[in-house]
Specification:
The complex is a heterodimer of chains A (364) and B (453). Chain A has 364 residues and is of the alpha/beta class. Helix content of chain A is 47%, strand content 9%. Chain B has a 6-stranded mixed beta sheet with strand order 3-2-1-4-6-5, with helices on both faces. A two-stranded parallel ribbon of chain B has the order 7-8. The longest helix of chain B has 23 residues. The chains are: A alpha/beta (364), B alpha/beta (453). At the A-B interface, helix 1, helix 8, helix 12, helix 13 and helix 15 of A face helix 6, helix 7, helix 11, helix 12 and helix 15 of B. Chain B: InterPro entries: CTU2, Rossmann-like_a/b/a_fold. Chain B: Keywords: Cytoplasm, tRNA processing.
Chain lengths: 364, 453
Amino acid sequence: MEASEAKSKKQGASRLCCLCNQRRPVLKRPKTLQQICKDCFYEVFEEEIHQVIVKNGLFKAGERVAIGASGGKDSTVLAYVLSELNRRHSYGLDLFLLSIDEGITGYRDDSLETVKRNELQYGLPLQILSYKDLYGWTMDDIVKMIGLKNNCTFCGVFRRQALDRGAALLKVDKLVTGHNADDIAETVLLNILRGDIARLSRCTSITTGEDGPIPRCKPFKYTYEKEIVIYPFITESFSSILDYFSTECIYSPNAYRGFAREFIKDLERLRPRAILDIIKSGEDFRIATTTKMPEQGTCERCGYISSQKWCKACVLLDGLNRGLPKMGIGRARGGANGDHHKETKKPASAGRSLESKQCGSLDF
Amino acid sequence: FDMACNSSGCESGGCYGREKENGCKVVDVKETVRLCVKCKSNEPMTFGDGGSDDGRFCAECFRSNVYGKFRLAVTSHAMITPSDNVLVAFSGGSSSRVALQFVHELQVKALKNYEASRDRSLPVFGVGVAFVDESAAYPSLSGGMSDAIELVRSTVLSLSPPEKDLHVVTIESVFGSESVEARDRLVKLLDSVSDETGKEDLLLHLKMLSLQKVASENGYNRLVVGSCTSRLASHVLTATVKGRGYSLSADIQHVDARWKVPIVLPLRDCVWQEITRLCHLDGFDSLKTVELARHPQSGINDLVSSFVALLQEENPSRECTIVRTAAKLTPFYFNKIPETDDSCVPMATQRRLKKFNLKYDGSMTTEAFCPICNGPLNGSDSSEDESDALYAACCSSCRFQILPQEPSSLDHFGSLLPHHMISQVKHHQKFDSQTYLREKIKDCLLLDDEEAV
């Protein structure tokens, strides 16, 4: 299918945009390989997102919505597009920017500057919450203690809770994050590789946590990462509005997720639609509904939603504070949740498992 | 991987590095004679292939471990029962060679029991072998094909008694003959598929069709396929990336009774490493020429195999985890041996099958299937565009990677497909369960249609 398309594309390079048939094409659309002009790209990019929002009933008029803003490309483009669509289609939403400061010098302090600029550029009120204030630890402190192997686990767990707390502070009804199609496809693959059937059944939902503190949704669920990169890049006038911070987290090199990411990039080269196909598979997997929802209670220590006695953040924090940072990493072992762990493992092999456990158990 | 070292009577073969950590008492391991961890009497076998578990088991115990998994799969899923006639799909590769060997050994044992028993109540199941010549699709294979077939023939001959029929068929036999016309038609059909991966997959579907044809035309009621855990792990990922998440669980079970001749996977729980080691141990010649000529392939299937190989390097149990995850997906009703009104099935077997709920009622067909890949269709796949019957009948994956994109070419493409695939299209064009069920029970109805429930 791609071979014949590519052939005809080469022949049609001098022709006109596939969609409007008027202007000169300037790029090949990553999702469909269509040759289109700049204006049609913006149009189709924004229109598709609008359709996703409408078809999935993501918002109701009058809702207060916080955009999880990291300063990175996804959340910056999300903030811009969402405020555009809100205005253009009169969604009637009250939009806010919510940023989490993990305390990573040379990375987060720079990207926060971007978000502060966004606040001014898009006119969206900004709230910043820091790990230091919430937990008493910055990521720099954590990495100093535990090194680079499981740091992503800590950061992911803490961030999730931080976003919920920030959303509560802002009194918003909903949280939106910039997770894109590539992210979700990666997560589907990772959950298959790691054997996490429960997460596999939830990770393709466009809205999650409806019965939790704050529902969160992903309007970019079907949007390709490449297209999110192209969107602000394509003209100078746009990129001056949409400046964003594009460096990778300085602590990320050992993420197991990298395996899946490389694979997906290779896959996309062979067959662009494979990314959407992975998401489709994830949606279609026959998973018994009984495996979907773990019993949800509240954490005894902080009151946050949790399926165990203590929420994961409290378990991790407790470990850090007690100088036992490996508590809560790998399969459930001692600590507050010792009685509740579902999987039993021989104690002798637990030592090995936490050595080899890569970060990437980001809760999705 | 290394088991935790139990200092009293250390069982671990790779204990050296962990001496200090675990306080292992075995100080001078080199002087102690290492024994098989299972039987504790023979010297362990070292394969030297860099894989896990090397040097732990002796040859006999290793072999019996693998055979044990095979036998457990066969008995717990009622794959082969005394009255069955079993066709083993043999590609010449390691996996199918092991499958063939194990089925043969099972048969030999059954024969021994039969001859030793007084009342001869349990018959011995029959075994045949099928080899599909794919040289029409892969011209590079033609050169070595006659030698390959000779090797297959001598292999099958060596596996007697009991004797086994060998059926060598060409892939183009799906068109009803093995003529030049059939060969040309195959080439035309494959050429009309522009997607590389689609072409590879279509060939796999045609191969299955030819195996089904051999099986049903020669009175076999079971088709044994040698797919191992590793192969299934790749399949889990290829199915996922092709949008085939719904039908995935149908493909990876021990039994697949969608087909006229149910398919069984007795090596499903064995990993590739075990299979290659066993072949090495028993000295099985693999038809490397046949296997190698098929490469290189540049599609998605190959990309996935490389990815899985990479993951395996990082963690040798990854394949097992992948298949275990997929095994948690809900299988279909046809992933069990179908119940047939078979009076020649021995009573003991019948009771056992009923007791463990190993069969299903064969008349229960609630799924519609894609005519090309035979995958169960998800409701969301059905297209509003019913202008072309073939397009409407296929799953979204086959629509994309196999069917021609030009609507005008669909008719011609349909004419190239084997009759068996197309005949399904006409039949299931609009699956109307009401009418279907009524058809089934109409003989019992006493009232007119309008008055019936």
